[in-house]
Known about the structure:
By secondary structure, the protein is of the alpha/beta class. It is built from 11 helices and 12 strands. The two termini are 35 Å apart.
Amino acid sequence: MINGVTAKIQIDRLLLQALQEDITAEDVTTNAIVKGNPKGQAQLICKEGGILAGITVFQRVFELLDEDAVVETVYQDGDVIEKGSVIATVTGNVKAILSGERVALNYLQRMCGIATLTRDMAEQLKNTKTKLLDTRKTTPNMRIFEKYAVTVGGGCNHRYNLSDGVLIKDNHICAAGGVKEAIMMAKKYAPFVRKIEVEAETLEMVEEAVAAGADIIMLDNMDDDTMAQAIKMIGGRAQTECSGNVSKERLKSIGALGVDFVSCGALTHSAPVLDLSLKNLKVL
């Protein structure tokens, strides 16, 4: 996703906005201390073990400030990085390195944290058919980065945004006047190639969703026993997704139920950042 042409158009715009937020007029500290345009090199140090995600985004920040900047690394996204290891070296204009440091680290630390948490949670679903999904509970203007990090960690992306798919939730059902009515409206409006997913909070809603021909039924905030009943009731006539109160500790029991998907907002809204640092700057 990050390497696609469309993604590059999007990420350059977002990275420039982040740089503009951090440098409204000038980097006054760097300009006061660094005279001329010397070349320098700094090391990206791993201070906490985890999964690498976003190294090309990290690199691109420096390239936007210095087209001759070079980031060298033997690691790739998805690799395990260990505490104390040198992940990469950044070579380029000293002013660009100093001015881009925080923005580059902010993206990389956030993305590595999401990939690390996702990998940890995805491991709980090994040897099951259940796929781990993210949600739209992302940081504003960070969605493309955060959803990419989920895939690096071994998770899958749910719909990217509101234009990407039909997902009828509780308030949509209220607005439509019922589960059946909402599904019928969606079928009439949406192109036939789009699947229709509907949220169900009770077994009665599940029954109504199956009868109305939903493609995917989201079993929302159900305990394991109720989900088991719902899955049996659906009987393969629709795909199933578990959502709500999803924790690492609960994932194994969810996978054992045979649900098709489990979505977890915590992957993006609650992942701690991974501790990384740009250190040992030297003027060449």
